[in-house]
Amino acid sequence: MTDAQVGAPLPDMPDDFSSVLVIVAHPDDPEYGIGSAVAAWTRAGKRVGYLLASRGEAGIEGLDPAESAIVRTKEQEAACREVGVTSLVFLDEPDGRILATPQLRTKIAHEIRRFRPELVVLLNFQPTRGGRFFNSADHRNLGQAAVDGVADAGNEWIVPGARYDGVARIVEFGAEPTHRIDVTDGVEAAVASLTCHREYLAALSDEPVEEQARAQIDSTLTHEDGRAYLGFRVYG
Ligand SMILES: [Zn+2]
């Protein structure tokens, strides 16, 4: 928890959008916190899609990447069902070697034009997590490629095709938050969604997967008057 969350409540993020694209590097990246907002949004009738750069094939120690990719794809599909996400796209970039290349920006721009989100949600792509831990190269590079891909989608000369400049706002989860979202209606679905990454979580800890998932989701929330809130850094 950050100082900003301990002090006065953050302002509420405007709820003026109907479509959301979550763009992240790996399976489980949306489930470590963003999922509670996603579940609240889909329950409220918003359209939410996930765009994943990789299949997380290098993520399970002792499990061959070819096999891991299959396991993690299935776990991600199940995680999506729990929070009402019906569009799941993998770009098949190499896990652990994601670079913010013009080619990746172009792929992201095409998906932005196809899905036409008003809000784009990213995972922390700053150099560190809270100034205490170094962020992964994939998270840094993918976040930067996504920001640039949103801009590229709006230019028919950089990426040939019909331009789309309807992204009104980009938000980042896991960086110093500026706003909050009431996610009370999405918390249980978020726990269920993270629990779907069963093999991945089981390889990380001996603690039962359900308990790991609930502890992780709880650690992301603040509470006020019986409501649960998730913080985001809002750009735009
Ligand atoms: Zn990740």
Automatic annotation (TrEMBL):
GO terms for biological process: glycoside metabolic process. InterPro entries: GlcNAc_PI_deacetylase-related, LmbE-like_dom_sf. GO terms for molecular function: hydrolase activity, acting on carbon-nitrogen (but not peptide) bonds, in linear amides. It comes from the Bacteria. The keyword Coiled coil does not apply. Keywords: Zinc. PANTHER family: LMBE FAMILY PROTEIN (PTHR12993:SF28), N-ACETYLGLUCOSAMINYL-PHOSPHATIDYLINOSITOL DE-N-ACETYLASE-RELATED (PTHR12993). This is LmbE family protein.
